[in-house]
Automatic annotation (TrEMBL):
Binding partners and assembly: Homotetramer.
Species name: Brevibacterium rongguiense
Sequence similarity: Belongs to the trans-sulfuration enzymes family.
Class of this enzyme: lyase
The protein's name: homocysteine desulfhydrase
GO molecular function annotation: cystathionine gamma-lyase activity; cystathionine gamma-synthase activity; homocysteine desulfhydrase activity; methionine gamma-lyase activity; pyridoxal phosphate binding
One Pfam match: Cys_Met_Meta_PP
Region (Disordered): 1-25
């Protein structure tokens, strides 16, 4: 059957299997070899060493490329941050990085460090404000755009939509068109949406990165990242970075991620249904503000409806202050107070407890990652905790 005819729900089950031969294994092996038998001068297809080659990686990398609609295999990394760093290394020294002011805090703090070291110039924008993004790109392009002699970009637009943790939704087609006009490379962090709900390469993004720690693995037991592109030169640069920086993924973690991927469609669907139901009920709770792109009144609702096939399973709740938000976190019994997201269990976190979180994120903002439990059990837990905290 041709790959093109398969739905994403089928690809997550079908991808990365060993070739179908008599007596072959149905699930891929975990390849643990650190080196490979050498046969003279290595050719381009020869496997040399475990920092550069691993068949378990390849199974996962092929699966993610199919899901994101890329022409080339993805590149797996030891964490989402390692994938993000590899993608940011596509920026030429001294280039400009335009990024959402509410990107994942690790992305921003990495970029800030790079700026302090003189490696890049960071410009942050409200990624939901298309005019502001366009203006930032036009202004930055005056200092240089296009690629340098090594193939690195002089200007890069970093996209996260919905953003972490504010859930702002960018107009993907509009900002990518603006970036292309300005000669900028576009990298999209697609962790929140997953390739089942949003495929940035189809809108013209050059590279997609994920924290595969989250939905793709889905069980809070793996730290992993992946970068995907259809551009051979960009892939080559990230591949060289991976082998040289050496922060590679362990084969067992990659195997676990591939195993988790098998149920991605079911998990995303169930968690999304739970999130929509909880967000809707939360709008009736006095004294809090709810952000969820699936709500008809949410500022990102129309955009998310146009460019995504679902709204995801992250809800942001704004409580009046840090103390009330902390009281909710202390009172829940089923939600787990923990950072991270995208797993089968529901997690809750007051984001500003993290020193690196942006000051423009309200002190009382709770990020809820909704899992696949019974929605009634989740509601009973959350509504009781809110009642107790708001009554105090
Ligand atoms: C949107 C987003 N991107 C990237 C990362 C970093 O991924 P990792 O923790 O796998 O390094 C995170 C982690 O929370 C995230 O939320």
């Amino acid at each position: 059957m041709s790959e093109r005819s398969l739905a994403p729900e089928t690809i997550v089950v079908d991808a990365g299997r060993p070739p179908r031969e008599p007596n072959a294994a149905v699930s891929p092996d975990i390849e643990l070899s650190a080196t490979f038998v050498a046969t003279g001068v290595p050719g381009p297809d020869d496997r040399t060493y475990g920092r550069s080659h691993n068949s378990t990686w390849e199974a996962f990398e092929g699966a993610l490329a199919r899901l994101e609609g890329a022409q080339l295999p993805g590149l797996v990394f030891g964490s989402g941050m390692a994938a993000i760093t590899a993608a940011q290394e596509l920026l030429a020294p001294g280039g400009t990085l335009v990024a959402p002011r509410h990107s994942y805090m690790g992305t921003l703090s990495g970029a800030l460090t790079a700026q302090q070291l003189g490696r890049l110039r960071l410009v942050t924008v409200d990624i939901a404000d298309t005019d502001a993004v366009r203006a930032a790109l036009t202004a930055a392009a005056a200092d240089g755009s296009g690629r340098d002699e090594t193939g690195r970009a002089r200007l890069m637009l970093w996209v996260e939509t919905p953003t972490n943790p504010m859930l702002e939704v960018a107009d993907l087609p509009a900002i990518i068109a603006a970036a292309q006009e300005a000669g900028a490379l576009v990298v999209a962090d697609n962790t929140f949406a997953t390739p089942l709900l949003q495929r940035p390469l189809e809108f013209g993004a050059d590279v997609v990165v994920h924290s595969a720690t989250k939905y793709i693995s889905g069980h809070s037991d793996v730290i992993l990242g992946i970068a995907v592109t259809s551009d051979p030169a960009l892939r080559e640069l990230m591949l060289a970075h991976r082998a040289q920086a050496g922060g590679i993924a362990g084969p067992f973690e990659v195997w676990l991620a591939l195993r988790g991927l098998r149920t991605l469609a079911l998990r995303v669907e169930r968690a999304g249904d739970n999130a929509m139901e909880l967000a809707t009920r939360l709008t009736d709770v006095a004294g809090i503000a709810v952000r969820y792109p699936g709500l008809p009144d949410d500022p990102g609702n129309a955009r998310a409806g146009a460019q995504m096939t679902g709204y995801g399973a992250i809800i942001a709740l704004e409580l009046p202050d840090a103390a009330t938000a902390d009281a909710v976190v202390d009172a829940v019994e089923l939600f787990t107070p923990a950072t991270s997201l995208g797993s089968v269990e529901s997690l809750i976190e007051r984001r500003r407890r993290n020193a690196d979180e942006q000051a423009s994120v309200p002190e009382g903002l709770l990020r809820l990652s909704i899992g696949i439990e019974s929605v009634e059990d989740l509601w009973a837990d959350l509504s009781a905790a809110l009642r107790a905290a708001l009554a105090d």
